[in-house]
Amino acid sequence: MIHRRALLAFVILACLQAGSVRAERSVVLVTNGECAMEAMSMLDIRKAYFGIVVSYEGRLVRAFRLNNDDELSHIFFQTVVAMTEKSYERRLLSMLLKYGTPRPQEFRDIGELVAALRRSDCGIAYLWLDDVTSQVELRIIRLLWQSD
Amino acid sequence: MTLFLQRFAAYEWRQQIMLAFVLCAFVPIASADESQHDFLLFPSVDTFDSFDESDPVVKDSFVRPSLGVLYSYNGGRFRFLAEYLWSSTEAELERAKLGWQASDNTMLWFGRFHSTAKFWTSEFHHGQFMQTSITRPSIEEWEDESGPIPSHITGLSIEHTQSRASETAWNYGFSFGLAPKFVKDELVPYDMLDSESNHGLSYNARMAYRPDLFGDNQIGLLVGWNDINVDSESSPVLADLNDIEQLTVGVFADWRWDKLRLLTSVVQFEHELNYSTGSINDEFLAGYVQLEYKTGDDWTLFGRVDASSSEDTSPYLRLLPAYVSHRHMLGVRWDFIDSHSLTMEVADTSTQGDGFTHDNFKEVRFQWSGVFP
């Protein structure tokens, strides 16, 4: 009986441990390896995602979005732009109408997003840390979000 | 190449400028490594019916489909923006301008643009879906809808934004260029392909404070000066009138408190109407207050008062008989499927009229509007 309880406790602890490993996820801001940008303030990140011009050593910073992951998008709206998706989309529409401000390019495939980042001068994108580690061409410049 | 230059030389100088302008717009396409095109469609269908008119000749009703097309190109530090409007009553290139990002905070534009000194006009342009109400405030009306202030200027404009670490911002705008002319009973903007010019100059400035660089709230000042040349032969009313000098000084606000939104602008007008026999001075105050209340995610109740003071005796407004001097309007809007809306408005309206008294009528309007993609 004691052995069974010990086994059960071990299984529960193992499950909790596994859960906590899954929960310890991070969202990071990345750029391509050739861009020398070391860091970026939250103000400049927000500007870039609203289409407002941000440059680094004369190179325009372009923002890219991956929109195939609801949880990642939720973190983006909550942490980066700090508004609802509807308000954000309306704001981008308004700026395009007024100033011709380009909207951040969206991708549903991470491979296409990484390819666009590689082609860009100093493009930025937010990604799960797990997805970045397999992309040697990308460089992390800021931690945007981390699970508790 | 020689043939191209020969043909180019055969054009009149204004057409040469226009052609060079269009060609310049494609230069960044060839040179930029990263470029982006954006394309928006703003379709709408309006219905209008008047009733209870003070004069039977004011009676009107119509159904008007329209389509606004916006194209934007971004390549490096160059930008091109064009806006075209088709409707059952007109087809016109509303904006066409080439921009250069002089610095992260400063943009220079050359071409045809909407006046910097008109708040609503430079906020919503022809994007009908983006404005809550069907109608525009009377001082924000387009030239061909008896708008009293020039809307379309052809020339140069500068926009500068000064943002701070606190995410507050100041926006500054200044423009100068060719103002519209006064023909028959309306202002007529400069046509870039029209060889007949004789347009006066227009100078406009705007300053706005934003408590949040990324938000919609803003409050600011507007100043405009327009030298409006007059086609004296286009109407007996304009006989001997050579030009109109117009100064406008105004304030505006677009502010949200949770579900409530306030849109307002008040403008002081001063005119000098220069006749062959002498000059007449004229001044009046005009403005609007629009309140909007979101009752849920998709429903908005709104109302607006357009009012003027001392406009009854204004010699300038007497040249614009269809100018809406007073309007009390209520409306409701339903947004659905993200990018569509149905709107209804009812209003009690007074237009300037031909004589010394206004024409009055009630009006009801329905509209579907949308934005794609």
Your description of this structure?
- The complex is a heterodimer of chains A (148) and B (373).
- Chain A starts with a helix and ends with a strand.
- In chain A, strands 1, 2, 3, 4, 5 and 6 form a six-stranded mixed beta sheet that branches.
- Chain A has helices at residues 2-23, 42-49, 70-81, 85-99, 110-119, 129-132; strands at residues 26-32, 55-56, 59-66, 105-107, 122-128, 138-146.
- Residues 12-22 of chain A have low confidence and may be disordered.
- Chain A has six helices and six strands; from the N terminus they run αβαββααβαβαβ.
- Chain A is an alpha/beta fold and 148 residues long.
- In chain A, a hairpin with a 2-residue loop joins β2 (55-56) and β3.
- Chain B has 373 residues and is mainly beta.
- Chain B has helices at 2-10, 13-31, 119-124, and strands spanning 35-51, 61-75, 78-87, 91-103, 106-114, 152-163, 169-178, 181-183, 186-188, 201-210, 218-229, 241-257, 260-275, 278-294, 299-309, 324-336, 340-351, 359-370.
- Chain B has a 16-stranded antiparallel barrel. Chain B has a two-stranded antiparallel sheet with strand order 8-9.
- The two termini of chain B are 39 Å apart.
- Chain A binds chain B through residues 43, 46-47, 50, 52-55, 60, 62, 81-83, 86, 91, 93-94, 96-103, 105, 119-121, and chain B through 33-34, 36, 38, 40, 70, 72-74, 76-77, 79-81, 99, 101, 104-105, 107, 122-125, 127, 130, 159, 161, 163, 165, 167, 213-214, 216, 338, 371.
